[in-house]
Design goal:
This protein is mainly β. The protein has helices at 14-28, 54-66, 139-151, and strands at residues 37-39, 48-52, 70-74, 77-81, 84-85, 90-94, 98-102, 117-122, 125-131, 134-136, 160-161, 166-167, 174-179, 182-187, 190-192, 199-202, 205-210, 213-216, 225-228, 231-236, 239-242, 247-251, 258-270, 275-281, 284-307, 312-334, 345-358, 383-386, 393-405, 445-462, 471-487, 495-498, 501-505, 511-513.
């Protein structure tokens, strides 16, 4: 049965999304359809945690596929395996107590088109991974085994990251890699301990992730969920604990993009950014709604929105985000990393009903793998919205935003006075990150190269004094501010306007034009 594309999210009611989710489940969740059950024990699998079961599990999947699809049943036990290929019409069901245990031998893994993974699928349809069981990649042991191969001379130096002292990401298998697949459900399972990204869905269509738990902070590049150039996605009720970005949309292909993405009712802990569009942004992103998310103990940004590789980014909404103990609240960046192609654009972004508590100390101190320290002294970073000269971020609305900062900005530690606003580097082609400009001259919000910015009911506070003003707008046009409250800052001038015109600020004094 063909499933119609999701209409533009801006025209969808919240009730409509719920109804749509139910329809999707009945249409594409194989577990809801009658079908034969194939138990991996009947094909020779042994759940002792030591016997390699790759061949037995694959034979079970192949049998289900050959008979038109069905449920591949994994009972309680620890089933060691290398790469298995999921095929059309097959549901991999892990009963509670079942563990699909990734081998720590890199020779037991393969790839189909992109990267290696424990579970692969390419050009398949109506596939699912369900149940209350676990998929444990034993990622640290696997990655360290791969690392040892470099020192044994079995890995070329071009495949080794000498700065970070580890094998390149593409040598380290993921848990799940689905490419060009249609009608996918991943529901209920726990995904643990990947050697690289936990799960990636690339160039897919019609994807549901529901009630998936990710526990993967044991090694590097452990993105919790990666969605790349995929359309019609619904991610709900997921718990993400990841040693890299939590939930991340990417676009790797110039001619493809992410479209019609709905993410709601999830909890995210990340040693990088919790909710992120980018960094890779070659094609683009449109019609994205992310709502009702709790973020905690996150090293970088609670919300990161990045278009830096020539793609487009438009019609993106974040609603009802509650973030505690995070390094940065909001980071929006239009950049130009690959200057052999035109600059992309970033426009029509709305961020509403956001509460963020920014930490003074690094928020990820309890992680097994923490984010890298910055190589320079700095004070707490503000939220920021930045374009580049000649290419502005367009039409951004921030509404009902509360951000609590620790303050304690000290110009003896790092100093960016207002007299040197023009000296802040542009970093046009640099990797986008909230810390990319070094010390910034505002404690609350820094905005540069933006056209069309509306701030409604913004509450910014600092717990202790900071030498910097609260907000700086540089090369901004069409700025509207209504209902602004700033607490804890005793300076007379809390808002700085530089090269900024067509400004409307209601019921607020303390504005300085430079």
């Amino acid at each position: 049965m063909r499933i119609k594309s999701i209409p533009d999210i801006k025209q969808k009611s919240h009730l409509g999304w719920k109804i749509l989710g139910v329809i999707w489940l009945h249409l594409i969740y194989p577990g809801m359809m009658s079908g034969q059950v194939y138990n991996i024990l009947d094909y020779g699998a042994v759940g002792d945690g030591n016997t390699l079961n790759t061949k037995h599990i694959q034979e079970t999947i192949d049998q289900a596929f050959a008979h038109g699809g069905g449920r591949v049943f994994v009972p309680p036990g620890k089933f060691l395996s290398g790469t298995i290929l999921l095929k059309s019409g097959v549901e991999l069901f892990l009963q509670q107590g079942a563990v699909l245990l990734g081998s720590t031998n890199p020779d037991h893994y393969q790839k189909l088109s992109r990267w290696k993974a424990l579970i692969l699928a390419d050009n398949q349809k109506n596939i699912s991974i369900t149940g209350q069981g676990k998929i444990d990649g034993q990622g640290r042991d696997l990655a360290l085994h791969i690392d040892s191969l470099f020192y044994a001379g079995q890995i070329d130096s071009s495949d080794y990251n000498f700065v970070e002292m580890r094998p390149m990401y593409y040598l380290r298998p993921q848990l799940i890699e689905f490419v060009r697949c249609t009608s996918i459900v991943v529901k209920g399972v726990t995904l643990k301990n990947a050697a690289c990204w936990v799960q990636n869905y690339s160039e897919c269509n019609h994807l549901i992730l529901d009630s998936v738990r990710v526990e993967s902070d044991a090694y590097w590049n452990n993105d919790g969920i990666d969605i790349s150039d995929t359309k019609n996605v619904r991610i709900t009720n997921c718990w993400i604990n990841s040693a890299d970005d939590g939930i991340c949309l990417k676009s790797h292909l110039n001619g493809a993009y992410c479209d019609s993405i709905y993410i709601a009712d999830c909890t995210v802990r990340s040693s990088a950014s919790a909710l992120k569009l980018g960094t890779r942004s070659s094609g683009g992103f449109k019609n994205v709604l992310i709502k009702n998310i709790k973020v905690f103990d996150t090293f970088r940004s609670a919300i990161a929105i990045e278009s830096v590789d020539g793609g487009f980014l438009e019609n993106v909404t974040f609603e009802n985000i509650d973030a505690t103990n995070t390094g940065n609240a909001i980071f929006i960046r239009l950049g130009w990393r690959y200057q052999n192609r035109p600059v992309g654009y970033l426009k029509n972004v709305a961020i509403r009903n956001i509460n963020v508590q920014v930490a003074f100390e690094r928020p990820d101190y309890a992680y097994q793998v923490r984010g890298p320290e910055l190589p320079f002294f700095h004070n707490t970073f503000p939220s920021s919205i930045t374009g580049i000269p000649g290419y502005k971020v367009e039409n951004v609305v921030l509404e009902n935003i509360t951000i609590e900062y620790p303050g304690r900005g000290n110009n003896g530690l790092a100093n960016r006075p207002l007299s040197r606003l023009d000296a802040i580097p542009e970093k046009i082609s640099d990797y986008p990150e909230f810390s990319m400009f070094g010390e910034l001259p505002a404690w609350g919000l820094y905005v540069r190269h933006v056209e069309g910015l509306e701030l409604k009911n913004i509450n910014l506070s600092i717990a202790e004094p900071d030498y910097r003003p609260a907000l700086i707008f540089d090369d901004v046009r069409d700025l509207k501010i209504q209902g602004l409250k700033i607490a804890g800052d005793r300076k007379v001038n809390k808002i700085i306007l530089h090269r900024t015109d067509r400004v409307s600020i209601e019921d607020y004094s303390g504005v300085l034009k430079l």
